[in-house]
Amino acid sequence: MNKWVLATAAAVLAISGPASAAGTTWLVTEENIAGVRGAQGSWTVKKDGDRLSGDASMQTDNGKSLTYKVDGSFEGGVYTIKLSDRSDGKKDCVWTGHAPAAGGAQSTGLLGYAECEGTKLIIRASIVQ
């Protein structure tokens, strides 16, 4: 039994080790609250304890590339992530995401709002394991 547990633990570490160093992929959609413009793509997120950092590679609904940096934390079931250096010029964006409440339209992944200077976005994310 102990050999099986050790072999399983070693396999999990071998699989998850390189992925952790490279970062975890989050599939992300964002849209203005007005629903006029949106983007979809991915975040590559590295985790160091409760700290998160990484990059976003998105495509807007008009086909343009959108990139930015993500930096934040995870505490008490809530992600607080700053979206900086956005290629679309949005400033001071901070996303607060959490698992969706039971009974809502979205039942998995993460959901939350990003407050930016002059605009508000809704961001949905799904962490790819």
Count the beta strands: 8
Give average pLDDT, whole number: 81
Enumerate the spans where pLDDT stays under 50 for 5 or more consecutive residues.
1-20
Question: Total helix count?
Answer: 1
Strand content: over 45%
Structural class: alpha+beta
Order of strands across the main sheet: 1-2-3-4-5-6-7-8
Description:
The chain is α+β, with helices and mostly antiparallel strands and 129 residues long. Helices cover 16% and strands 54% of the residues. It has one helix and eight strands. An eight-stranded antiparallel β-barrel has the order 1-2-3-4-5-6-7-8. It is globular and about 35 Å long. The two termini are 27 Å apart.
Task: Describe the structure concisely for a colleague.
This protein is α+β, with helices and mostly antiparallel strands and 129 residues long.
